[in-house]
Amino acid sequence: MTRHFLRDDDLSQAEQSAILDLAEQMKADRWGSKPLAGPQSVAVIFDKSSTRTRVSFHVGISDLGGSPLIISTANSQLGGKETPSDTARVLERMVSAIVWRTYGQAGLEEMAANTSVPVVNALSDDFHPCQLLADLLTIREHRGTLAGQTVAFIGDGASNMAQSYLLAGATAGMHVRVAAPAEFSPAAEVVADGERRAAETGGSVLVVTDPVAAVAGADVVVTDTWVSMGKEDEKQARLDTFNGYRVDDALMAHAADDAVFMHCLPADRGYEVTAEVIDGPRSIIWDEAENRLHAQKALLAWLLAANATTANATTANATTANASTATTATATTATATA
């Protein structure tokens, strides 16, 4: 079965760690691995505007020896006339992987169900798993380990970033706290999935409304924009609702003395975070942004290798089965002849 990366818990703890290990190796030797040599092409599809995702995937695919095929749904049949499943069936005959930055998670799931090449969620309304791989890589670089670290996400708990932190952080064995207004809590099913994964890894998940309670003693403090793409018409109402959830020096003072600050960017300075924090000595956002490149390269290489292993095993099993059938048939013919 083809391995895809549609949400953070598509990976086990061991698989997540293996990809982060590979990312560290690729960061240390940026052009040392060429699994896409040929060059093989990777389709990178955008429904939404992008800076970090577009640049990191384009550069990363090139670093891996491949050719990035950048597609805008506004200028393709996927933008209206063609279903994700039909597009997937066409693309799998020409590319080695499909990366899609989109809105609904259902479209990604439909595409993945109808193709033999790996599909990667480069962002959806529900999850942002590639960003979380970069965030985990950055935390590991600065904190040494992931398991046992406490991370506090402050702001929109229903956002793709908050929900991905619940799943990816729990997978890594972290203690994930989300502080959000009650009406912007994470989806109950995502919290439940995070709790199940945390029970396996020794981590934990907690959803509260008090940002101070979430940040108290935390090793990592994270926030994201209060007004995500597609929510612009809700801006004033959201600003009013999230009043009190801004990450500033006063809130950071409740975190551990050596706590770090993270933001996936772009940031609305003065809204979800103050300039003093985002530009301050605790901020590691630029390392976080760079690590999109290394984490995504490692993810693509890992998926290609995992699917090649599965394909080889399937072929080997089929060969063994055919040989067994042939042997049985020969024996039966010999018995009948005798």
The CATH topology of the largest domain is given as Rossmann fold
Strand order of the largest sheet: 7-6-5-8-9
> Which geometry do the CA atoms define?
globular
Question: Average pLDDT across residues?
Answer: 93
Helical fraction equals 40-55%
Structural class: alpha/beta
In angstroms, what is the radius of gyration? Answer: 22 Å
Give the amount of beta strand, in percent. Answer: 5-15%
Can you summarize the main beta sheet? 5 strands, parallel
The helix/strand series, from N terminus to C terminus, equals HEHEHEHEHEHEHEHEHHEHH
Using DSSP, what is the number of strands?
Answer: 9
Pathway: Amino-acid biosynthesis; L-arginine biosynthesis; L-arginine from L-ornithine and carbamoyl phosphate: step 1/3
Organism: Curtobacterium pusillum
Subcellular location: Cytoplasm
GO molecular function, one term: ornithine carbamoyltransferase activity
